[in-house]
Amino acid sequence: MERGGALYFDWRFILPVLGFGIVLLVFGEREKKTNSARQFGALFLLLMVLCFSYTFTGISLSFGTSVTSFYQTIPRFIFDELRPSARADVGFQQSVAPKNNIVLVIDESIRGDHLSINGYRRDTTPFLDNLSQNTDLVRNWRLAVAGATCSYPSNALILTGVRPGVDEFRMVETHPTVFQYAKAMGYETVYMDAQTNTFWNGLAPDDLEYIDMWIKAKDLGDDIQSDFRAADWIAKAVTNNKGKFIVLNKRGVHFLYENSYPADIETWRPVPGEYTSQPELVTNPYDNGVLYNVNTFFERLLIDLQILADTTILYTSDHGQTLFENGVSWLHCNYTPMEATIPLLMLGRNLPASSDENFLASHSNILPTLLDLMDVPDKFRLYPYAPSLFSPAFDVAGERWFFDGSLRLIEFHSP
Ligand SMILES: [Zn+2]
To answer: How far is the CA of 275 from the centre of ligand 1 (A)?
Structure first.
């Protein structure tokens, strides 16, 4: 655990703390009476500097899980609450009713190469394997590249179509979200979050204007069966219905992995007593989690395959996971390719061709694909997004990039 802690340590965190210390020395204890007022003033000054650095210069002074991150969160929270939305308006409204339902499922911490549908040695996704072999209802882009290795930037990129390596990350605050396009195309929009009861993934309260229904973790039970209740809800909502646009943030398989499934269904054993000292055992609880969570989710969602007549489902994960391989002692939010390795599947009818090659697709292809599924005319697309999965050009985009947890741009190399 010491090694794990050291990886989150960043010497630069000393700078703002040092600044605070100097301010205290200069303005601090001279007369007992005004002592607390002066100290409060010094703290206020520090908060203003952190706020200013983030808001006006774009420089984040929060490095790692340090004291400054805590303090910076306070002014950032206050300012973000007060700041009006900077998102562009999509500027059109279709009057024709939508002809389909669209469901985007964003899983949590699911590494693409641990799904048997992608050739993994253990049968972690038997339902999907069977469906892809016996029907024409599945297209698989196999292993794809995440936009980021941390949940917040990754989700923010997916929902806005901002492209790592081409666009600045800050565009996630100004680009319209996929919900705006869906509303403009006449869809009834639903945002489901099996993880929290607040916005955490790049959406802000102003975005609620384009979300007709917000289903939170507490509405889904907030336990290891939340994702299954979400699946049941979606299946019911799209049955004999058209015009639904649903985005689900799944609960997925989060560390500690053995907490994401009931102990009595354990297939692969043993579970490591201590993750960092027994890295060779980490895949056991992780794969149990994938089998329980991901496989059961699709079984419940597709209990009646008839829903795919009018519904297209796009499935991915926010990021991968290191699984402590190659001596690595962190989970994700860093720079290794396995953290950026995610699945990308489409389920439905009249699907585009997919490729057997890995890493041709990325998160950047998702928003333009959703716009195609909605039939958004080209003239109404506000930015030059990445190619859609329906476009034959999508696999010739060249190099791939992703953001790490500190929003540093990393070039992706196949592991
Ligand atoms: Zn995540």
So the answer is: 19
CA of 156 to the centre of ligand 1 (A): 12
Predicted model pTM:
0.84
Phi, psi at 245, each rounded to 5°: -120, 115
Question: Could you tell me the distance, in angstroms and rounded to a whole number, from the CA of residue 251 to the centre of ligand 1?
Answer: 9
Distance of alpha carbon 406 from alpha carbon 392, whole angstroms: 33
Q: What angle do CA 392, 377, 206 make, to 5 degrees?
A: 110
The 8-class DSSP code of residue 215 comes to E
Contact between 140 and 355 under an 8 Å Cβ cutoff? The reply is no
Picking from 394, 385, 326, the residue whose alpha carbon sits closest to that of residue 355 is 394
**How far does residue 42's CA lie from ligand 1's centre (Å)?**
36
| b/e sequence 175-201, b meaning 16+ C-beta within 10 Å | bbbbbbbbbbbebbbbbbbbbeeeeeb
Contacts of 111 (CB under 8 A, 6+ apart): 286, 317, 320, 321, 323, 338, 341, 342
Neighbours of 380 (CB within 10 A): 15
Distance 350 CA to ligand 1 centre (A): 31
Please give the distance, rounded to the nearest whole angstrom, from the Cα atom of residue 379 to the centre of ligand 1. Answer: 34
Alpha carbon distance 166, 385 (integer Å): 10
CATH code of the region 101-411? 3.40.720.10
pLDDT tens for the chain, 415 residues long, are 444 455 556 677 677 778 777 877 776 666 555 567 777 777 788 777 777 776 666 666 655 555 656 666 766 666 666 667 889 999 999 999 999 999 999 999 999 999 999 999 999 999 999 999 999 999 999 999 999 999 999 999 999 999 999 999 999 999 999 999 999 999 999 999 999 999 889 998 899 999 999 999 999 999 999 999 999 999 999 999 999 999 999 999 999 999 999 999 999 999 998 888 899 999 999 999 999 999 999 999 999 999 999 999 999 999 999 999 998 989 999 999 999 999 999 999 989 888 888 999 999 999 999 999 999 999 999 999 999 999 877 666 567 899 999 999 999 998 8
Domain boundaries, the chain: 11-82, 101-411
Point out which residues pair with 249 in neighbouring strands: 106, 193
Residues in the chain: 415
